[in-house]
Amino acid sequence: MKKHFRMRARITSVSLVIMLLFAPLMSYAATSDDLSETKDKINSLEEQQKENESEIDSLEEEQNTLQGRISSYNSKLQSLIESSDAVLADISENEKQIEKTQKNIEQTKSDIIDMENTLQEKKDDMASRIRFIYENESNSFLAVLLSADGFADFLNKLEYISEINSYDRDKMDEYKTALEELSDKKEQLAEQEDALEDKNASLKALKEEYEEKQTQVASLIEQTKSALNDTQSDLSDANDKQSDIEAQLASMKEYEQELEDKLAKEEASKQSEISKDEEEIESGARVSASASDRELLETIVYCEARGSTYACQVAVASVVINRVKSSKFPNSISGVIYQKGQFSPVASGTFAYYLSHKKNDGYASCKKAVSKVLSDGSQNKFLFFRSKESADAAGISGTQIGSEVFF
User: Fold this and answer.
1) Strand bridging mode 399-401 / 385-387
2) By C-alpha distance, which of 90, 84, 69 is closest to 334?
3) What is the C-alpha to C-alpha distance for residues 129 and 146, in angstroms, rounded to an integer?
4) pTM of the predicted model, to two decimals?
5) Beta-bridge partners for 405
6) Can you list the positions of beta strands (E) in 18-93?
7) Residue 376, CA atoms < 13 Å, CB-side half-sphere
8) pLDDT tens digits for the chain (407 residues)?
9) What's the CA gap between 163 and 166, in Å, rounded?
């Protein structure tokens, strides 16, 4: 805006200079033709001034439109990514349930084998007992009764025979019960296998839905880049006359610094909570990344650490991966990067700019850092980072890597 006001001031100054230059002509030329010519030139300059002011207004409108598009696409992406992350969470829950069901099925199968072995043993015992009774005990029982010495002894022997028969009946009942339990266990196995089939079908449907949403995310990112390219092309034409693109980036950088300082102060007040959150991060945490996710990660590393060391770039990429693995943040790379109020380049528009423009100095190093983290896993357990200046101002203690403090 200051450039625009300076442009207006310069144009107004030009008008005054021209008027002063032509003032002597009016004093020395007495003819109406000279006066008319002078007025025409002044009017022409005034028309040029109006055209320039109109171009400035048009440029400001273009800039507002661009910022509006950035906000609109970021909002759409955030909504779609949140929906995608919800499906991913359902997939994870389904996979856990499937794993649990599979373990239950294995246990049920093991129980069935044990029960069948036990049942076979009981069956063999019953067969042996029946064969023994058939061959021996019918006559043995009669011999026992006939050998009784008196009525009292006869009753005792009769009670003994009754107890043997009762024992045989109990064994038969145990066999029947075991047979029924085996039948129930097989029905339970069938139900578990049906449930597993349903869960696998549900998981397949969720994975298809997730793939569709990921396709939508990639498509929307491409639309964002295309729309920004179109708008930036128009904006560049106007900027050739009125401003320099680096001035916009400088303005974005100033805004980023304001956000950086604000976030640093907020995070300084909850450093102990952040340290506890880091404890849940696994060493060498890994996540899979689509081509779209990789580009997003490379671009945010470029925005945050392109002027710093390679180690710092690796650390920034690791922070994003750690957040994906943390329960306190979205569970996808795109979700983490577009989460509201987390990365100042996203909020300022710098991220969107570099996502749709050529990246030069330091980008190769950023791509290398991202490749290392995606292949070897996270290289630290940090969840946050701030510039050294912001961290010092906010009183944040952490580990300095390159130009950033990680905590």
Assistant:
1) unpaired
2) 84
3) 23
4) 0.53
5) 386, 400
6) none
7) 12
8) 444 434 444 434 434 333 433 344 343 344 344 444 444 444 454 455 455 556 556 656 666 676 677 777 778 778 878 888 888 888 888 888 888 888 899 998 888 898 888 878 777 776 776 666 655 554 466 666 667 677 677 677 677 667 777 777 777 778 788 888 888 988 988 998 898 899 899 888 988 888 888 888 778 777 767 766 665 665 556 555 545 556 666 666 677 677 777 777 777 667 667 677 677 777 788 898 999 999 999 999 999 999 899 999 999 999 999 999 998 899 899 999 999 888 988 888 888 888 888 787 789 999 999 999 999 999 999 999 999 998 899 898 899 999 999 99
9) 5
Residues in the chain, overall count = 407
329 CA to centre of own chain: 7
C-alpha 101/C-alpha 25 separation (Å) is 100
Q: How far apart are CA 58 and CA 5, in angstroms?
A: 14
Q: How far apart are CA 81 and CA 73, in angstroms?
A: 12
| Non-local CB neighbours of 390 within 8 Å, separated by 6+ positions | 257, 260, 261, 263, 264, 396
| Residue recorded with tokens 């906000």 | 71
